[in-house]
Amino acid sequence: MQSLYPPVKNGKATYDLESQKYLKLWQGPQHPGVTGNMSLELDICGDQVINCNTHVGYLHRGFEKLMERRRYINSFPLVCRICVPEPDTNEYLFAAAMEELLGIDIPERAKWLRTLNLELSRLASYLMWMGGQAGAFGMGTIAQWCLAHRDFVLDLFEEWTGARIYHMYMIPGGVRGELPEGWTGRAEKVISAAEKLLGEIEQVFINNAIFKLRAQGLGIIEPEMIDPYAVVGPNARGSGIKRDLRKDTPYLIYDQLSFDIITENSKDAYGRFLVRWRETQQAIDLIRQIIKDMPTGGAFHLTLPNVLHLKVPKGQTYVKAESTRGEYGYFMVSDGSAFPRKVTVRGPSFSHAMALLEYLAVGVNIADVAGLMVSLHTYPPEIER
Amino acid sequence: MKQLYEMLCTQYHVYDFEQRQDRLAFVSIPSEQLVSLLTCLRDIYGFSHLALMTCVDWLEESRFQLTYILRNHDGHRELVIKSFIDREHAVADSIHHLWQHARVYQRELHEMFGLSFPGSPGMTEPMILEGWQGPPPMRRDFDTLRYCEDNYSNRDRTHSEPEAHMKATMYPED
Known about the structure:
The complex is a heterodimer of chains A (385) and B (174). Chain A folds into 2 domains: 1-58 and 348-385, no CATH class; 63-346, Cytochrome-c3 Hydrogenase, chain B. Chain A has helices at 63-68, 76-79, 88-102, 108-136, 140-161, 183-206, 209-215, 234-237, 245-248, 269-293, 349-360, 369-375, 381-384; strands spanning 8-9, 12-13, 22-27, 39-45, 48-55, 170-171, 174-175, 315-323, 326-334, 340-346. The relative contact order of chain A is 0.18. Helices cover 42% and strands 14% of the residues of chain A. By secondary structure, chain A is an alpha+beta fold. The longest helix of chain A has 29 residues, at 108-136. Chain B has one domain (2-154): Beta Polymerase, domain 2, CATH 3.30.460. At the A-B interface, α1, β8, β9, β10 and α11 of A face β3 and α3 of B.
């Protein structure tokens, strides 16, 4: 095993590529097994990865710089583009950070609608992820099923907010509109179908011998690694760590909903799939709870002064929420003007896709690198912003 | 949180305490005590999770605000540590030995703000802006428009009204 690795001279590994023993292989930036556009610079010996360097920068659009030159309300179409599969967390956090600096409290009805929106986007994001994970292990059929059902969820979003992907639904002071008439009935139909799909995924994928063979023991995250590598969300819960911001520091109306933190103890890619699969069921359950318990009527938006001339009081704050990938946070600094002084986005992928992936990829078979990467649920725009 | 601040006051020159939410507070610390405070918070007070490390450019005051957000998972409390460094001499102590992912944050800050963290592994490698020649782009005095005008040119294009274009290409004799 040790002989696979190159000799170390002066603390640095030295490769003799001419020896035909080592191969430098780029996985990405365009590769079906890479989430988003980033690339892995892999050093291969045989079919085993002996070193991995991640390279990002293919999706850099300078969101944080652009936000400094825009009024607060003009930043809303920007922030949702930081994460394509789950843009609502960004909208919520940007609005919540603004509201906290302004010192305003949103109406009760808006809190319920925001939570419903967040949980529905959680369902859509997990469906897309399960498809990606199945695809990375060579089962494209399940990817097709999942994406079809995600599309039905997007139909619901389109009817509700007017947009399929980037909803821009949560605005400072509340939300942009009410639920359409008869929407809850159609939502029930879609989530029942998704629930049925989850049962089918269990039969053909979770119990699949090939998936078990490949995913069990892949990318083991020991509990001791959780804090040094800042592992959060389902990746941490897959290692048996009971942490969920919805329970730990409840925001919106999560303290009024009944749910448990889902954990698995296997620490590997298989355990992480189980956590996410069960959390998808939990999201469906939460959507049903919200629709059942939501108070009817009442204001869904606060009357604010003209938002184009809104000046936010001087101050700094940090708000966070549990996205499908873990802790998502916004650090916002206002200098008292109509433009944010600085907005920093804390994407969970920043630690998962860089330091953690570089560590976990060593020793992995080249065919499993895609599965390992997807199992960490990373999105490069959160790193580059 | 106030209690924690008072305890820290006995050991460090912390100042500017500000309670923002029930479980979120801000404190400032001179940069020479920063690493010592972070180590103490991590090992003794249980703030083991570094959620975010970032920088704010206060151009008017000619200083950078280095910001570290730490969380204590047992009490679900968050502490934001602010440390100010001189803008002209932007060097700070590295914390890559405390958290594995801190080196990635430091690499990003080096690229975007031009901060230097001596000893941080791979700090000078380009991360997002490969082949970037200009000044650090996230500094407040970096003028995006001016940089674009100096370095890039508009593509030479002829613009034509659809009606005039149709007439010119399809019915030139009319």
